Amino acid sequence: MSVHRLLAAASTAPAAVHVLLQPDPVGSYVLTSGRLWSLVAALPGLAGVIVGGLALARSAGRIGNGTGRRGAVAALTAGVVCALVGALVVAAAKGGPGTGYGIVGGYLDLLLGLVAVTLGGLALARSRRRVTG
Fold first, then answer.
1. 3-state DSSP assignment of residue 73
2. Whole-number Cα distances in Å, 47 to 22, 54, 68, 70, 115
3. Which keywords describe this protein according to UniProt (predicted)?
4. What angle do CA 46, 75, 70 make, to 5 degrees?
5. Could you report the per-residue pLDDT of 3-25, keeping only the tens digit for each?
6. How far apart are CA 10 and CA 71, in angstroms?
7. How far apart are CA 104 and CA 130, in angstroms?
8. Of 26, 107, 112, 115, which has the highest C-beta tally within 10 A?
9. 14: helix, coil or strand?
C-alpha cells in the first residue's frame, strides 16, 4: 500500500466511524409503528378536547340546556386514553426526534390528553355545582 493511499484511508476513517455511530434517521414521510400509535392516540385526544370544550360551555349555560355531564365524562375518558397511549409510546421509544419512534407525537399526546382531562374535569365540576347548588 502506498503512503498516499494510507493517508487517504486514515483521513476518511474518522468520518466513516462518525457516520456509523449516528442513529439511522428515518425519512419524514415514513409511517413507522411508533408514529402510527401516536397518531391513533391523537384522535381520541382531539375529540376529548372538542367535547370537553363543548361540555364546559354547556355547563356554564352558554349553549344548550345547561347540562354537560355526559360530554364531561366522555372528555375525561378520551383524555385519559390519549395520555396513556402517549405515555406508552414515549416509554417504548429508543431514540429521539427523527428516529421514527414517534416520541414527538407521544409527548404531544400527553399534552393533548392533559388538556382534554382538564376541560372534562372543569365541566364535570361545574355541572355538579349547578345540579346541587
1. helix
2. 38, 11, 15, 14, 11
3. Membrane, Transmembrane, Transmembrane helix
4. 140
5. 565 455 556 555 544 444 445 56
6. 67
7. 39
8. 112
9. helix
